[in-house]
Amino acid sequence: MFSAGYNRVNTFTSALSFNGFNPKSSIISSLYDPDGDFDIPFQTYLENKNGYTPIQKNVQQQGNVRESGSIGTWAFSGAIDIEKDFSFGLTINLINGTYKYVRNYTERDVK
Q1: Which of 2, 43, 46, 73 is most deeply buried (CB count within 10 A of its CB)?
Q2: Separation of alpha carbons 109 and 57, rounded Å
């Protein structure tokens, strides 16, 4: 006897978006890193070598997050009767899936 089956274990589907004016803060200062190679605002000319940026507040912020994918399990089973009232069976489960996470964030100085 032989059987096969598929079970979707989880589905990743979500979306989030926002858009608004922030009069109090900008994301630029939170991206600062003391190591200049990893300091994103410095690498993109948004701050000087001391970590100062003139863009500190009054910015329009917009973001989009999209998540997609799924995880599934394939099962393959087989069994044989060895003797009367005694059988041997085996199942092999294979897990597969995909996952994608995309986050876009923009910030503009509208003033």
Answers
A1: 46
A2: 8
- Of residues 6, 13, 2, the one with CA closest to residue 101: 13
Convert the pLDDT of each residue in 11-27 to its tens digit: 999 999 999 998 888 88
Q: What gap in Å lies between CA 32 and CA 60, rounded to an integer?
A: 20
In the chain, % helix, strand, coil (3-state, to 5) comes to 5, 60, 30
- Regions in the chain scoring below 70 on pLDDT: none
Quick check: helix, strand or coil at residue 23?
A: coil
Cα distances from 102 to residues 16, 18, 79, 84, 111, in angstroms, run: 11, 14, 44, 57, 29
Q: How far apart are CA 69 and CA 89, in angstroms?
A: 33
Would you mind telling me the total number of residues written for the chain in this entry?
111
pLDDT at 52: 79
